[in-house]
Amino acid sequence: MAKIKNLKGLMIPITDYPHMPYWATLEEAVVLLNFSYETAHDTILVFEESYRLIGVLDQKEILRDIHPGFSKLSPEKVSDKWEKLISTHNLDQLKKPIKDFITPFNIILDVEDHALKAAHLMLKHDIDLLPVKESEKIAGVVKMHDIFHEIATFILKS
Amino acid sequence: MRSLLNIFKKIRFKKADIPKASPPDKMSFKERYDCFQNLLVDNNSILEIQADMEEKLSGDYIFDMHYVDSRCDILVEKVQSLIENLNSLSNGEYLGLYDAFERINSGIKDTLIKNIEIPVTDFTIPFEDVTKDMVRSVGGKNANLGEIKNRVNLPVPEGFCISSHAFKKFMDYNKLGDKIDISSVDTDSLVDLTSASKAAQNLVLNAGVPPDLEKSILDAAFELKRKTGHRAGGFYVSVRSSAIHEDTQFTFAGQYKTALNVAPEDVVSAYVEIIASLFTSRAIFYCKSKGFHVEDMVMAVGVVEMIDAKASGVVYSRDPTDEGKRGIIINGVWGLGKYVVDGIVKPHSYVVSRDIPMPILEKNQPVQPFMLICGLEGGAIDVRVPDYIRRMPCLSDEQVTTLAGYALVLEKHYGKPQDIEWALDLNDNLLILQARPLRIITGKPSMPVPRSLPGHKILINKGQIACKGVGAGKVHFVTNDEELKSFPEGAVLVARHTSPRFVTAMNKAGAIIADVGSPIGHMASIAREYGVPTILNAEIAMKTLKAGQEITVDAINGNIYEGRIEQLIEAGKKDNTFKDTAVFEVLRGVLRSIVPLNLIYPEDEKFSPQYCETFHDITRFAHEMAMNEMFKLGEGAHRRKGGAVKLVVKLPLDIRVIDLGGGVENGSDKKITVDNIACIPMRALLKGMMAIEWPGPPPVNVKGLLSVIASTAMQPNSEKSLSESSFAVVSREYMNFSIRLGYHLQTLEAYAGDRINDNYIRFLFKGGGASHDRRARRTRLIKEILEKIDFHVERTGDVLDGRVTKYDRASIEKKLGVMAKLTAFTKQLDMTLFNDAVVDWYIKEFIKKHYVE
């Protein structure tokens, strides 16, 4: 029986994934994701000074933090003009360090773990991204996108 | 000559005199720092003297040998001191500079000796043996005549010169050099002039002629008589002055005496009379007002067979009153030419075309009432012109054409218009008696460059003039090497600051403008060498001017105008009459060993003592090396860590301070605060750092959840490096600060004093941590930001070495403020540098936020 791949082959190496220190501003986070648009990455890894990983910041969280009340607006209030929705308060938010908006990490996988283990954890905790370590260092991340692709092969074969 | 001895004394530099370099530990930091400061003082003095001497080359100033002499003396002293200080500072690392110094100094010595000394020659020299390079021996007039006879091959009278060496012998024999003193004469007082003149002349006229000189002159005179075969009635000569400064662009013409129709046995007394004419009030006044000293007044004399002239006159190879006209003008009179030269009678005049076949265009033959002829017993007498020739032309058409031909030949030989004296002897032979450059009154009266021109817009009127002149062209900004390489012909170079690298564009530049820079700095010196009008410290040129804009740079009044203004450009053209004189040549000669800068690029392998060819090279090399040595000194201090005191300050850095003297005030031995810091650059840096919003602590709820380290970090001992201290070595003007921030080591060195030439900032960045790509991006980020704030940056792999020099103190402080921001900004920024687009954004952000112009 074919063995499912381990994460080493499926992960995105840390150097190829957007990450920044916790003192960076929301604005910088927007810049980083914007300039890495072609990669289709939607989450930033957040580190502290000695390169310890402390959490993530995803696109939805960023939008939420720029305009906290946005999702609670009634539909008619959602203008088609960006300037109408934005006040100086929102612009001030952009200057804030991202440390206040991070989602902490609870789970870490290892490079030797296999894809099904990753899938299991992702479904259980309803997350699309997990960090992967290799001998006590963060080596990269795995995305549901790639896990699914791996499993799909098996689904279609059977 | 007096000054010669001084030169010999000062330059004999014994290697034994060099102090033995103390072993490294013996010489304290403080002592070495003092050497550094002394070196900076020397450096400044040298550049100032150099600039002053270069300014004299512009032709706008008159100066004498003593100026050249004394400047060279001081320079030699300062350059020696500079080399000694460098070697003390560096423990004798640069002994090779002494060799370079000896080599260059010999060159200067040779130039000075060659020109101050009166060459030792025979007392008398026949014209056959004279050419124009012998001015120092026979004087201008004689040298010229010799040249015309021997090289241009035109007919001149026979004769000989009594040399300047003979003159010296005469003066020394009678101790006249000591007895005659005109240095204290007040040229504004006619009484003073007259009495000084009388006294000097009396001394000369009563002086004895050394027997060997007398014999030599008489022998030569009788030899001349034998050679020419005496004509009926006896042999006579004219004895004329030929001073060393005469007949170049100084119109000494007519200042000194000429004795006509002298019998051979009277030549010696005529000689003495002519020497006495050196000291007429008029001559003394003229000499002093041009800045000459009595030692400069050296005279040779010409003894020439007296031409019993049937007719004589002058030829001008061009119309002296109108340079536009192309005709050759000939004036003539019956008898001796003195009447033409002195303007006593109206001469016959002819205008001849200079184009083949050279037809006579005009003839004017007024009636001449009286003429000057040679007396039978000597002397010259004034007589009435006989009737049978009174209405006749003094020259036949053929003779006129011949003279015109001679004029053209002389003009071609000397490359400039000529003023020629001629004579027609009793056998109808035409002879040239004298030729000298013709002074032409140019069409436009020489007016000064106007201070402002109505109707023309002044774009900028700030700045300091580094090289005088007026230039015009299209603006070409130079902010990097590419723009320098592509510099177009005739454009105006506009840059933020100066750099010796601009030398590559100097031949093409119409003018140079920079927002900052020192008029005594290296680039300014090179600009003066090339004569490119230059304005520095214009402050707003980069921001006011537009690329390709046509402008006129008036670097005489310090104005930059919109458009090309021909009137100004013309007015800016100089009348270079002083430039042909002997003393000017001497200055030009010595400056060749002083000014040209060959060592331009410190990174070049030729940047070393063996390639130094001028004092400027030595100075530049020494200054660069001194800065390097100070840098190493600072590094050494860090390693030693002895005597470091903790600085208490609200910054995420552990700073320890080592005071070289004057950098810390009233601090305790254990700790100091920012208020105790007297070091100017350190204060500026700390001020900038304290104004930064440093990152706060990590979020409480997520700390310590994951204790793994990202593989982007290549430092296994990360904990240790994070806690290392940052060391600062300081004095009042100097700082060498090794900053440990995150995983990076940055060394920031700065000197901020009162002299702009001393000031600099040096920034060394060695980044640790991060993957290869990110390190490269971070290096690029820092390099580009540094370049935007006017640093010159060298990159070797991950190491950046940035330098900024020659800004005033306030600007250095301002830059350090920006450097402080950069230090914090780059703190572990490599994490974020995902790709190049991100890097570009960060560069823009930093400049926008922190570098407000």
Label this structure with key terms.
heterodimer, A: 158 residues, alpha/beta, CBS-domain, four-stranded mixed β-sheet, 7 helices, globular, B: 853 residues, alpha+beta, Dna Ligase, domain 1, D-amino Acid Aminotransferase, Chain A, domain 1, 5 domains, nine-stranded mixed β-sheet, eight-stranded mixed β-sheet, 20% strand, disordered N terminus
Which percent range fits the helix content of chain A? 25-40%
CATH superfamily of chain A: CBS-domain
Number of domains of chain A: 1
Total domains of chain B: 5
CATH architecture grouping of chain A:
Roll
**Strand count, sense and closure of the main sheet of chain B?**
9 strands, mixed
Low-confidence stretches of chain A: none
What is the fold-level CATH name, i.e. the topology of chain A?
A: CBS-domain
Using the CA coordinates, give the radius of gyration of chain B.
36 Å
Strands ordered across the widest β-sheet of chain B:
24-22-23-26-27-28-29-31-30
Residues in helices of chain B, as a percent range: 25-40%
- Overall mean pLDDT score of chain B? 82
Terminal CA distance of chain A reads 12 Å
Q: Largest sheet of chain A, if any?
A: 4 strands, mixed
Query: What's the CATH C level of chain A?
Result: Alpha Beta
The count of β-strands of chain A is 8
Distance between the termini of chain B: 58 Å
Quaternary structure classification: heterodimer
The two chains with the largest interface, and their residue counts, are:
A-B, 37 and 32 residues
Element order, helices and strands of chain A?
HEEHEEHHHEEHEEH
